[in-house]
Amino acid sequence: MFEIERSVVGDESSTPISPDFFKAKIKQIVEHPEYLVGKGSVSEVYALIENSQICLKITDPNETYGTINYELRGERPFFNSPHIEGGFLAELERLDSDVRVPRAYYYGTVSVEHPNAESSEVSVLAMEYLDAVSFENVFALKEDLPASFNLEPFFEKLEKFFEKMHDKNIYHRDVHEGNIMIDRKTGAPYVIDFGTAAHGNEEDVYIGSRRGALTKFKKDDSGLRALRRKTQQFLTGVTN
Questions:
Q1: pLDDT on residue 24
Q2: CB-based contacts of 35: which residues, under 8 Å, 6+ apart?
Q3: pTM of the entire structure?
């Protein structure tokens, strides 16, 4: 049984997939691991073979399968449910910036059968699949740095993006080489994975709760500076 809870964008006519198409593909995707394009601590991201513009972020809230039970997240959720993450993406898409985030389309829930275990309800976020490369893959030499990449303007744009985002009291809290991407053609920056993002103020937003214990999150500015240093070191190595 699958249920679309809402369209994140509000206007279904502006999305590249219909709700019926979204419903029909959920179980097919989760049953085919070859569609997997990324995996985090609580979620997996699958590409849609039939539509290269779309990917599905699937989160299983059942601790049996290695994820965080939503009831244990505390006042500041350590991991956002897909509809909360979709809300952040929808809000930041409207931000006047040279940095983009993936566009969110739909979210919902679906029952998934697990081998030798009871089925569980997983949450799904359908969003834009970016034609971009992560710094993580570049540093690991799995993909090439796009020829259009220019370090100084790239990071200047990111700094301005985070300033504007913070002005709206939104904090990413997980800025690292896997969550900053580079457009393959233009070299433009993307920021992804708002699974730990939160509204708040700088004084207390970086302190949260995980499994009932206090957790300190990485500051956005610190993560960005660390990425810039590592990129400079990588470029020096490549150049020399």
A1: 65
A2: 29, 46, 47, 48, 49
A3: 0.82
